[in-house]
Amino acid sequence: MNEHGREDAQGSAAAFLRIHRESLLAEWQQALLDHLGWKAPKHTPWLIDHLPELLSTLADAVESGPDVLDQRLELAHAAARMQEGFDLGEVAQEYALLRRCILRRLEDLETPLRKGELTRLQEMLDRVVTRTMMFFWATKQRILQTLDRMAEATLDDPDMETLLERLLTRLMEVALPVDAAAVLLLEGEELVVHAAVGLGNDQVKGARVPLGQLTREMAATRQPFFIRSAATDPRVLLEPLRREGLRALYGIPLMDGERLRGVAYMGSRTAFTFSDADTLLFHAVAQRASAHISQTELHAREHAARQEAEESLALLDSFLEAVPLGIAFLDLELRHVRVNGAIAAINHQPVEAHRGRTLREMAGESLAEPIERIMRSVLERGESVQDVFLERTDAARGSTTYWQVDYFPVRTQDGALLGVGAAVVDISEHKHAEATLQQAIDFREELLAILGHDLRNPLHAVTASAFMLGRAQGLDDASRRAVDRIRKSTARMARMINDILDFARSRLGGGIPVTAQRVDMRELCQGALEELQVTYPERPLTLETRGGNLEGCWDPDRVTQVLGNLVVNALQHAGNSSPVRTTLTDEDADVVMQVHNKGDPIPSDLLPRLFDPFKASRAPEEDGKHRSLGLGLYIVHEIVQMHGGGIQVDSSAERGTTFTVRWPRVPRPPV
Fold this sequence. Notes:
This protein has about 675 residues and is an alpha+beta fold. About 50% of the residues lie in helices and about 20% in strands. It contains 20 helices and 18 strands. It has helices at about 5-10, 15-20, 20-35, 50-65, 70-85, 90-105, 115-150, 160-175, 200-205, 215-220, 240-245, 275-320, 340-345, 360-365, 365-380, 430-470, 475-510, 520-535, 555-575, 630-640; strands spanning about 180-185, 190-200, 210, 225, 250-255, 260-270, 325-330, 335-340, 385-395, 400-410, 415-425, 515-520, 540-545, 550-555, 580-585, 590-595, 645-650, 655-665. The protein has a 6-stranded antiparallel beta sheet, with helices on both faces. It has a 5-stranded antiparallel beta sheet with strand order 8-7-11-10-9, sandwiched between helices. A hairpin with a 2-residue loop joins strand 1 and strand 2 (about 190-200). The N and C termini lie far apart (about 120 Å).
């Protein structure tokens, strides 16, 4: 610029704005920070995005008149501020800070502005501020009126699709260029049209389109998209929009934080673009739609959670009532939160009466005191207390009730302590059963004492007397037969007493006692058969041995008892003249004992339970009574089991009956 031009520039407001534009920008930003107290602006950016162009436009208007002011700049600025959530005062504050920066810079000039320049600058700035405020206010009012009408659409609490269509309808009613609008929600990798109004809504509603590049970019940038010719643009994936010949198409992403919820669009068949007012209105509609979508989803989740909670509580109540024990939950103050019918019956109060009541109020002082002490310990230590026994005596009824209780802390999933729970089992019947069992045990001990001492002592005397009488001289045949009957009857009675004692020990005393020692099986069996031969002199009893080593560790008394029971059983069921043969066989680790007799075979239906106690005998006496108590073979089986051996029976009409006992030389643990 030459000297003359520099002089002409002096005193010019337009030249001032052009020369000092960068300084004004810096000073305005500093003024903004000073105004905010050096805090980040609530809305970013402020006027800075439009300020450079605004200063240039002001310079042109001061120089050439107000006709050169670009109204689109002011409207765009107002629309941007409204979209970012500014209120009218914040927009006015932006221009007030700008005016202050301009005036301060003018005060520092060495050469003042020419006459009238400052006035024209103020007038142009006032025009910009006024038109911006008017547009901002008018658009705000229009949006508020539309939102009021939208609020009316929600009064009858419609479903989400109906509500979205009503909102879109309100938009079309106030935005005349809009011919079609829709809301698409994201489902997986597709967008589904949930609401549509205007052109092509019948074909569009319910349509599914894949996530295209346009939608993905919009979700990433969170910025709206604009298409000038929807009918020909390949990015438009909804075919009905092409057929309807839409021109302008404007879309907004519906976001839920960082997550894309869907897309809302509006289209026009007549316009190639939408005004700032219409796009602002559409943003307001989209925000309201997005809020209702989120609210609907939230209500759906709340409803599902409430329903799930109600179902869980119903299941819990059903479980609490069905479970055969008392269940109670108490809070940190030991007030009842939930109890079932069993607890209510214990406290003689309805279930509903327990809620919110203390332990002492419901259970009484005498029972509540020990329970409360344990519950407070559970709350303090956070550990369960199990197997606590409580009792309460009913003086009026003369009965005592017994309970076994487990106490445990009740926590949330993250471990926060909520209270204490109790599981109560009525064990009164068990206590009574224990008392009855103790009586039975006492009776058993008394019975064993009678059998073992009071009966066997006189029986021994009878046996000894019969033995001495049988050796007396001068007895006739009839007397000698009578003595033999006495001797046989006392021997059978002694075996019956021994069997009863062994049975009692087996069932109630932990098994038949066995004391093993080194013995010779041949000598044991020979001695036992000789004693039996004295009792049964008319019956042949034979012993055969196979192999040289018949020694092992066994209880000699129990081995003799087994052989005696088997031989006596064989004598009872064999023919009167048939012999009973006992065989001992050396089989390495075992000695095998076999007792064989001829006679009627054992019935097949009796074989599976042959070693059970108290079974019926297979052959009755002449007077119809059974021969024994049915304990002999049971005792045999138990003794063999205690030695770790086994017993089997083979019986047929051709082969006769053979009992085979396998005796391990070193007794194994009983099976």
